[in-house]
Amino acid sequence: MLRIHGAARSRAVRTLWMAAELGLSYGHNDILPRSPGTRTPEYLALNPNARVPTIEDDGFVLSESMAINMYLAKKHNSPLYPKDLQGEARMWQWSLWETDRLDRQITTYANHTTALPEAQRDKATADAAWAEIEPAFDVLNAALGKAPWLAGSDFTVADLNVAGALFRGLSMDLSRWPAMAAWLSRCWDRPGAKKAKAMREG
Hints:
Blueprint: E1 2-5, H1 12-22, E2 26-29, H2 41-46, E3 54-57, E4 60-63, H3 65-75, H4 85-101, H5 103-115, H6 123-146, H7 157-165, H8 178-188, H9 191-201
Parallel strand pairs: 1-2
Antiparallel strand pairs: 1-3, 3-4
Helix pairs in contact: 1-3, 1-7, 1-9, 4-7, 5-6, 6-8, 7-8
């Protein structure tokens, strides 16, 4: 039995989306990042980093949302996991690219522009994050101007991982990056994505 630890209002939304795409049944430990639930002895035994998400899959424990999604898609022989070596490599490329170029940056930008109480926001921090986000968006937009999906001719884990990490982009003005904006909408219009989004916003 699969068990997913992590609230939808965290990086766990990516794994909840993947579970929905695969039609998996699972138990859900709905804990927020940095909450007391991430620091219990039981949870720290699963993930000493005290981060979410973490999964337990019939005794197998795994953390890091990108890795979890690759594992689940491959385990269940999903067409979301590229079958050819080059498609698999592109899936890894884009997933790792996102964690380096956008994951922290877009969270920091959102926190210091909208998410945090106004008194806690710092414009210099937001501006520094945006200075990194803009060229990354340029790269993503250019890639999606050449092909509709990131790792081949169809939606794959690459698209889910990157679009899942760009949830905050849904509320941003992306008019400067039309190919990326259209792709992000296509990704989040999928039934599995809508289910994960409803959990996050519920």
